[in-house]
Here is the input.
Amino acid sequence: MIQTHRIYDPQPPDKKTSRILVDRLWPRGLSREKAALDLWAKDWAPSETLRTFFHSHPDQFSLFREQYQSELRAKRGMILEQLQPYLAHPVLLLFASRNIRENNAIVLKEELSDWLGEPGNKTSLS
Here is the structure.
């Protein structure tokens, strides 16, 4: 099972969760010890160009989603290979954005769930 969670919010108590940070930049004011990550997947994050575009145009989530999905699909093999060791436990995709409904982790979760055939995946893929 794959879920998303804001890294600054109180963390779920389950110790058997694979914690993966999916942002390109390290979250401000957070120590590595407190983050307690299993993986910092910078390469899964949107490209710097796409990240800065969405930061400047938060009203363009649909366009961001399409472009990010394209980037993810180009890296599918690498992402699935890196994710494989963490699938023995539920996966928690961590992000720093204040917007919990429209961010890269949401798009990544949809793609991963689709690729892994998770039931109940709510995705906008055609």
Remarks:
- The first helix runs from residue 32 to 35.
